[in-house]
Amino acid sequence: MINDINKDSLFSEYYKQWVEVYKRGAIREATMSKYLMTQKWVEKLVPGLTIAKLTRTSYQQLLNDYAKEHERQTTLDFHHQLKGAILDAVDEGLIERDPTRKAIIKGKTPRVKKIKYLNQFELHTLIAHLDIKEEPNWDWFILLVAKTGMRFSEALAITPSDFDFAKQTLSISKTWDYKGEGGFLPTKNNSSVRKIQIDWQIVVKFSELVKNLPEEKPIFVGEEKIYNSTVNDVLTRHCKACGISNISIHGLRHTHASLLLFAGVSIASVARRLGHASMTTTQKTYLHIIQELENKDVDLVMRTLSGL
Fold it and tell me: pTM above 0.85?
C-alpha cells in the first residue's frame, strides 16, 4: 500500500484500498457492506481531502457533516471504521499525528423505537392457526422461531442433527447464507453459538417431522432461493386471519423474549437464549418492557411493606 499511496493521495482512495487489503475476506459480508457504505460517505463528504490535509479539524468536520443525517450510535460506528484505517496511516508515516484523537461524536436524536411483539394470547392464537403438515413448510418454521427466539438465518440453518430430543435441547452453531449463494456460515458472534432447551411440544412434533430427513441437511432449505419477505408474507396472512397484531419473523423473536421477561425469567437467561453478546444488548432492546416490569416490582414492594 505504501508504494501506491503518498501524502498527496486522496484519503478516500487510501481508505478504499485499506478496506480491500485488510477487510475483504476477513469479515462477514454483512460487516463488509458497512465498510463499503462508509467508503461511499467519505467519497461524498470529502471528495477532495488528501491524506496530508487530514487534521483533527478536518476529521472532526467530516464527523460533524456525517452526524447531520445520522444518529449518534451510527456516527460512532462510522468513526470506528475510519479510525482503524487512519491509525494504520499514522503507523505507515503518511500522517504525523492521530487526527482521530479526542474526536467528539455527535448525531441526531434517536427516534423512539418500540419493538413489535405479540402478547401471550395472540401468540397462542397464531400457533393454533398454523397448518402443520407432514412435510416441512413455513408454518413449521414460524412455530420453531416462536418457540425458540432464533434469528431468521439461524433457524434456516437448523438440521435434524441439531436436535437432541432425549435431552430436550437444540444446538445453534451456524447460520444460512440466504442473502448470498446459500450454504452454512458462522453465527453472528461467539455468544450466538449456544444450546437451548426446547419444550415437549417441539420435541414431539419435530421428532416426527425429521425422522426421515437427511441428518445434516437444513430442514427448511430447498432448491429455490429463500427470501425473508416470503416467510413474512406467510406470517402476515396468519396474523390477518387471526385478527391479531401484524408482526414480522423478527417480531416473533421479540415476542419470545418479551414473554420470557414478563414471566420473570432473568435478563441473563434471556440474553443467553437469544445469543446476545452481552446483557447490555438485551437491556437496550427490551428497555420499555424492563421498565414496565420495574413498575410492577415497585407495586409489589409497596404491597409487601404495607403488610408488615
Answer: no
